[in-house]
Amino acid sequence: MKYPDFFDNVPRFRLHDPLAEFLGAVDNGMIEYSYLDVVKLVGHSCPTVASAYWMTRLALGALYGSQTPERGAIRVDFRENSLNGVTGVIANVVSMLTGATQDMGFKGLVGQFDRRHLMFFDAAVPLDMRFTRTDTGDKVDVAANLQAVTGDPDTPTLMRRCLGGTTSAEESRRFAALWQDRVRRILLEHQEDTRVFVVSRPCD
């Protein structure tokens, strides 16, 4: 499968999944995720998908520090409704990475490994999302300001022309390259830029 080279340069992260360990799916329950994994999940790479991946990584890093995050033991609250804007897309990525679901996840085994009731929407949180450890109650709020990473000014025009079927093959390739270059810059050049990615500990 051919994909943009920069995907492989985006830092991966590991989680421990006790269900995967219990059922023998993965040795010691250790699962590694990459940006390519979430691209496969949603079927495309865009600033929204990139921000969902990176916000999750930042939130888990803040919550667990040097410890390995525990998949299935993380609650996620979204400020927006699941049908608003790109919230649903972000939720799909977050669900994949954390195991959290609303009510469609794994129901558990004898009261263990239940992945339901860990994702909520329309929550009273100050930023885009709040991640909470279910074992300790520690919380962290995260948000992404993607407007701070602007795309090439030709991108909107090329997109309209591509969608209208009026571009040449060369113009279509240029549009795709410009689109992915913005994703690359978000993930590789702005991963520690506090103007783009906000991580905050709630006071309560």
Summarize the structure.
The protein has about 200 residues and is α+β, with helices and mostly antiparallel strands. It contains six helices and seven strands.
Radius of gyration: 18 Å
Largest sheet: 5 strands, mixed
How many individual β-strands?
7
Percent of residues in beta strands? 5-15%
What is the structural class?
alpha+beta
Q: What's the overall average pLDDT, rounded?
A: 94
In which order are the strands of the major sheet placed?
4-3-5-6-7
Helix count, per DSSP? 6
SSE pattern: EHEHHEHEEEHHE
First-to-last CA distance: 46 Å
State the CATH topology of the domain at 12-147 and 195-200.
60s Ribosomal Protein L30, Chain: A
CATH architecture of the domain at 12-147 and 195-200: 2-Layer Sandwich
Helical proportion?
A: 25-40%
Molecular shape: globular
CATH class of the domain at 12-147 and 195-200: Alpha Beta
Q: Uncertain runs with pLDDT below 50, 5 residues or more? A: none
Structural overview:
- The protein is an alpha+beta fold and 204 residues long.
- The protein has a domain at 12-147 and 195-200: 60s Ribosomal Protein L30, Chain: A (2-Layer Sandwich).
- The chain is 36% helix and 15% strand.
- It is built from six helices and seven strands, in the order βαβααβαβββααβ.
- It has helices at residues 18-22, 35-42, 47-64, 87-98, 155-163, 169-189, and strands at residues 13-16, 30-33, 74-78, 119-120, 129-133, 139-144, 197-200.
- It has a five-stranded mixed beta sheet with strand order 4-3-5-6-7, with helices on one face.
- Strand 5 and strand 6 (139-144) form a beta hairpin.
- It is globular and about 60 Å long.
- The model has no long low-confidence stretch (mean pLDDT 94).
